[in-house]
Design a protein that fits this description.
The protein has one helix and eight strands. By secondary structure, it is mainly beta. It has a domain of 105 residues: Immunoglobulins (Immunoglobulin-like, Sandwich), CATH 2.60.40. It has a five-stranded mixed β-sheet with strand order 2-8-7-4-5, with no helix packed on it. Strands 1-3-6 form a three-stranded antiparallel β-sheet, with no helix packed on it.
């Protein structure tokens, strides 16, 4: 059964695709009699039950302290932020945003290898990189702080921060504020 499904899958991948005629610059006095391309029928799910699962690869990272083959995930859940999105500030007001997050991944966050950094949006920060206060084990909670200054001009501004380990950015946290004149 599995061999039959594999053969059907390979046959479907190797089947030639229908060619779609490209337009030409010549004009014809009467309507063309070229047949329209049609779609080839696909095998029904009953005939090939192994075609439904996604073959999309899942990315994971390995830390040096882990045993080979043991996947490590870096993730968090936002529990609270001290400044609500949409809060109003006056031009150039200074403020500190604090996000309370839980480490929901399988790897700890060590201050020597994980940073809290500005990622995108308006550059309201006073310092673009903040060191963690200590190691955050999986399941534990920590506070992530960033000192900010409201932009000079009135308007709506957003900024996004993230934890970063090497080239991996995770735990994206955003704030949107309004600046009044």
């Amino acid at each position: 059964m599995a061999l039959t499904a594999l053969l059907l899958l390979l046959a479907a991948c190797a089947a030639p695709s229908a060619l779609i005629p490209s337009p030409t610059s010549a004009t014809t006095p009467s309507p063309s009699t070229t047949p329209e391309p049609t779609l080839s029928p696909s095998p029904s799910p009953a005939a090939s039950p192994f075609l439904e699962p996604s073959l999309t690869p899942i990315a994971s990272s390995i830390l040096a302290s882990q045993t080979p083959g043991e996947a490590v995930t870096l993730d968090c859940t936002l529990l609270m932020q001290n400044i609500k999105n949409g809060t109003h500030f006056k031009s150039r007001d200074e403020f500190s945003i604090t996000w309370k997050v839980r480490n929901t991944g399988t790897a700890g966050w060590d201050p020597g290898s994980v940073d809290f950094t500005y990622l995108a949006g308006t550059r309201m920060f006073q310092y673009p990189l903040v060191q963690l206060q200590g190691t955050v084990a999986p399941g534990n909670v920590t506070l992530l702080n960033a000192d900010m200054r409201a932009p000079r001009n009135p308007g709506r501004y957003s900024t996004t921060w993230s934890l970063r380990q090497g080239d991996t950015y995770f735990c994206h946290l955003s704030l949107t504020i309004n600046v009044d004149s």
